[in-house]
Amino acid sequence: MEAHETVTFTRDCEATRIPDGTKITILKGEEALITQALGGSYTLLIRGNLFRLEGKDGNAIGKESEAQPLETVRGRNDLDKTVWKVMKTCYDPEIPINIVDLGLIYSCDIFPLENGGTRVEVKMTLTAPGCGMGGILSEEVRSKLCSISEVSECDVRLVFEPQWNRDMMSEAAKLQLGIL
């Protein structure tokens, strides 16, 4: 997928304005610049504003709609690795780095359920407490984790203590952003 590619909407389509999280209908014929195409969603620049377009609506800009593959795992260790791998497919819409490497995931606990399933509980934060994308990002994490066949339940909570700072980023993320 090419970032910085200009595309034209082929149909009216709902998108989310960044950073306030407001749902907006983008009209057919509107031009957009793809600034980021990571994790199954698109960040688009339209008349000076950023918008997030879900991968399922990729066909509105001439891209294939992306369906989430169902992940399957063997054993507890593989489940833990798969959960973290799946969370690494979630990206901040303004920063081309996944939320794990950004340090936005504060905890991830996996619990077996009596019925044989598994519950995953995640505490995550945002780079800025006032960001309106919190609900969208946390729902993306929840939805992707629920795509793992062994995950029966998932709870993703936004927390703001401790407040996020760039020291929480991985070395790779810092290097990618040029702050190392």
The number of domains is 2
Order of helices and strands: EEEEEEHEEHEH
**CATH class category of the largest domain:** Alpha Beta
Strand content: 25-35%
Cα(first) to Cα(last) distance is 27 Å
Q: Give the overall shape, derived from the CA principal axes.
A: globular
CATH topology of the largest domain: GMP Synthetase, Chain A, domain 3
In what order do the strands lie side by side in the largest sheet? 1-4-5-6-2-3
- Enumerate the spans where pLDDT stays under 50 for 5 or more consecutive residues: none
Taking the sheet with the most strands, its summary is: 6 strands, antiparallel
How is this structure best summarized?
The chain is α+β, with helices and mostly antiparallel strands and 180 residues long. The chain is 18% helix and 32% strand. A hairpin with a 2-residue loop joins β5 (41-46) and β6.
Question: How would you describe this structure in keywords?
Answer:
180 residues; alpha+beta; SH3 type barrels; GMP Synthetase, Chain A, domain 3; three-stranded mixed beta sheet
Structure, explained:
Strand 4 (31-38) and strand 5 (41-46) form a beta hairpin. The mean pLDDT is 91. A six-stranded antiparallel β-sheet has the order 1-4-5-6-2-3, with no helix packed on it. It has a three-stranded mixed β-sheet with strand order 7-8-9, with helices on one face. It contains three helices and nine strands. With 180 residues, the chain is an alpha+beta fold.
List the helices and strands and how they pair.
Blueprint: E1 5-8, E2 13-18, E3 23-26, E4 31-38, E5 41-46, E6 49-54, H1 75-87, E7 105-112, E8 118-124, H2 134-146, E9 151-158, H3 171-177
Parallel strand pairs: 8-9
Antiparallel strand pairs: 1-4, 2-3, 2-6, 4-5, 5-6, 7-8
